[in-house]
């Protein structure tokens, strides 16, 4: 990890603390998982823009609000999929 990456990671964590984000929005310790963009999430899940907006509105998908757009971690998407299966939605 370069110095700029370390600095960006630190600034991101400060941003989450100041914006009162849930601690679960942070990736698990020890992983170098990069946040996914809105388009990457739509491609990963195979959904359209309208489906994406509907899932964010109803709370199925919970993006991390960041300057420059929403971000997601893959483990959160997998958790949301497991929860949907558990509730019988899929």
UniProtKB/TrEMBL annotation:
<protein>
    <recommendedName>
        <fullName>Helix-turn-helix domain-containing protein</fullName>
    </recommendedName>
</protein>
């Amino acid at each position: 990890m370069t110095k700029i990456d370390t600095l960006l990671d630190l600034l991101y964590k400060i941003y989450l603390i100041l914006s009162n984000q849930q601690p679960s929005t942070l990736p698990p310790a020890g992983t170098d998982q990069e946040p996914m963009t809105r388009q990457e999430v739509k491609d990963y899940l195979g959904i359209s823009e309208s489906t994406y907006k509907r899932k964010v509105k109803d709370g199925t998908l919970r993006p991390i609000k960041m300057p420059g757009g929403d971000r997601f971690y893959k483990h959160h998407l997998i958790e949301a999929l497991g929860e949907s299966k558990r509730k019988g939605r899929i």
